[in-house]
Design brief:
36 helices, alpha/beta, 6-stranded mixed β-sheet, Malonyl-Coenzyme A Acyl Carrier Protein, domain 2
Amino acid sequence: MGLTPTARHGDQPIAIIGLSCRLPGAPDADRFWDLLVNGEDRVAAPDAARTHTRQRIGGYLDDVSGFDAAFFDISPREAGRMDPQHRMLTEATWTALDDAGLPAAALAGSNTGVYSACLGSTYWDLLRAHDANDMHGLIGSGLHGTAAGRISRLLDLRGPSMALDATCSTSLLAVHLACQGLRSGETDLAIVAGANTLLDGGYWDSLTRGRVLAPDGRSKFGSPAANGYGRGEGAAAVVLKPLADALADGDRVRAVVLGSAAGNNGRTSIALTTPSEEGQEDTIRRAHRNAGVRPADVDYVEAHGTGTVQGDQVELAVLDRVLGEGRPAGRRCLVGSVKTNIGHTEAVAGLVGLVKTVLAVERRTVPATLHGPADGGDRAAVELPSTATPWPERHGPALAGVSSFGLSGTNVHVVVGEAPPVREPDAAHRPSAYLLPVSARCPSALRQLAGAYAQRLADGDPTTGDPAGGDLAGDDLADVCFSAGTRRTHHEHRLAVVAPDRQGLVRQLRAYADGVLKPMSRTGSHTAPRIVFVFPGQGSQWVGMGRELLAENEVFAARLRECDAAVRAETGWSVVDRLHEDAPLTSVREVQPVLWAVQVALAAVWRDWGVEPDLVVGHSMGEVAAATVSGALSVADGAAVICRRSALIAEHCGPGAMVAVQVGEREAARVLEPFADRLCVGVVNSEHATVLSGDRDALAEVTESLRSLGVRCRRVDVEFASHAPQVEPVRPWLLAGLAGLRPTSGSVPLHSTVLDRVVDGTRLDADYWMANLREPVRFGSAVTSVAASGPVVFVEISPHPVLVPALEDCVDRAGGWGTAIASTHRDRPQLASMLEGLGVVHVEGGAVDWARVRTGGRYVPVPAYPFQHRSFWFTRPRRRVLEDRRAAASPGLRTVADFERYVRDQVAGLLHTEDVDLDRTATSLGLDSLLAMQLRSIVEDHLAIVVPPRLLLGAGSLRHLAGELHARTGLAVVG
């Protein structure tokens, strides 16, 4: 995935990497193909609910008023003034980009062109008739160029953005121009989208009087009964990219545009609106020359095929003549027209024909052309199939053409080829667990999307023996997860599911879709949190830790072996060998170096997956790993600190003990007063969790007393009393042994739990590591200060979580927003454990490098975004602003809360919604510059103050605006 252009060649093929459509009886491309291959006729009278459409036969969509305005951050007021054609092509564009696997972030700032196709706006006429033709109406309906511009702004696209109008050939002309722009290097990617609606207006009357419409509303291409064309609604979009770039970026190529041509009849036709054999033939021949394809090799042509008597005769005669030259006898070219299924979709007809052709080429099947003969009459080179027909067999890739001819005399023909074969990837190692991310802009869409993933993963599950399932049935599960991670925009509401197989993912997805939350079925809509790596001391070790990751994760294995070499240089024994032994780790000489190595390797996996720490915190010996990960200590220096110090502890420290107790530091100190010479508080984990350290016998006595009072106590698995006077004998030996240590500043800040502040890495010398061993661990206050500073995700970097409860307690007591996750768990699948934690990071808004989570993955199609439609239609402007407010002026605005209510009410009136979140900016709610200036005028007039535009269009929230208005009025009564 990406937009890295290769060298441009004027005749190179253009890949179609994404498409979408919304057509009568077909809300998406899959259903469209079913409609085509089943020979369905979707022309009928409009539904009675369509009061804005006269009862005329045509190809109608189920609904043209529905739109997911909230998805695009468009206010209800503005959405109601957008031409339904603009709304439809906006959604079609997003769906086509989903199909192409291009997330919005990958397109932002790119040289992507947008070409839109819409004809006249009868919706603009309706707005004008109902006095709703304000600036939003003009921009959203009166000016068709804004449709392309809106998409460019939505996605931050920097290539050319334009609306075209060549009557019925508009959208295919847009494809031709987009391909030219790609071949010339003017653009690196192109989006072509179009839409057509049949609303009440003058078009029907004019076309009827011109006798070009079929009385029964059906196009009968090539039939003796042809008597005019039938009209149809719809939207379609394609995403185009130079083939070389698409292949280099790992895109799915659905088909290729080999060449195209556009021209005009000039004066070769009888009149402007009549077809010309000379004009059509010239265009079709030039298209084949540009494509480097012999017309005789073309297997299928999607004709303009309107069903008008003169138009059909001219088109079929030209195709017979051009395609027949050099064609082997008995191998006629199949010709068809989608207009016989859904009507003539006018501005978008060429795109619809192109989408049909791509689907037919992919499936190597030519759908039936309805209402016409099967033999093409007496023409030798062309045939109109009346049933779905297998693609003609011949050597070479499938070749097809698409024609579109406009009332303006503009003719366009595009030559389409089958996608080049792609080498199947080598069999990859099957992971022991899969992480599938799903996201949406709102909870209802997330549930719907989870259900779509579940259905498409379950359909055709190879374990059921049903081979006819969904699109994802035959895809490698790892590629599905890779595509969901790397090829989709990650929205605010997120879901992450982890399972060892397809069935496990399906179960969890369905559980979420059905409203049953599973452990990893979490959602959130948070801003990006700070990431804090937390490294605990002893106690997390267990037999078998790290083994699975050594076998499954190359990054973990490589980093662990690097640490192993450093430990071996210090001690002569191997960390890797020790991990594979079944004997438990008990000696401090082994426990601490092995834990340090595993912690450093675990951190490497998190960072490889894109989870970069903003801060590291170490607990006791865990600070050595924290310092190594921060960059303050090299791996060799980290190994020197942990190995030399643990050896000195074993040699010079007498026996001791440590016990974790559920009491705060102050209470613990009171309990220890009788044993002040033998015991101390060694660790403060939180306000009510400490660790007592010192003499074994004294500690046993204190522990028994606390337990009798109902205090929870747990022995720490250590052989000595750390952070207590018992470690003092080590001091001279350790200072001498680490005298040559040369720490650096590091690249990641480290919050010292010795000094309880962020320290420069250069301070982590021999004296510091002695203090780290002797002084109490101020973990609780360190973590609490971090938790209180804003959203945070604490990642415990250890083989088994020992600090997660203390972290959660600190978050709760800090009153902040945060969560704590583990890396791996004792006796649980290790990769699955880490992926579960990664899923939480993603759900909570943290960054994830999905391409690294599954290296070598390939793109496969995954479910498109399910838009949540609401009905938007023109309404008379609401008068909830200046005049009404003056008449019912508030008796007084005194408090900030008063001003917040005032701001919410005014914004709600302007946007025509009651859903106003004061913590969002005005622009994110849809208050554009036009409405912002209206709000400014209202407020200045009402409150008699000056409101700078920056307050309305800046980065501040509406709550901030209310506070500013409160301050500017000087707390005076307003009314």
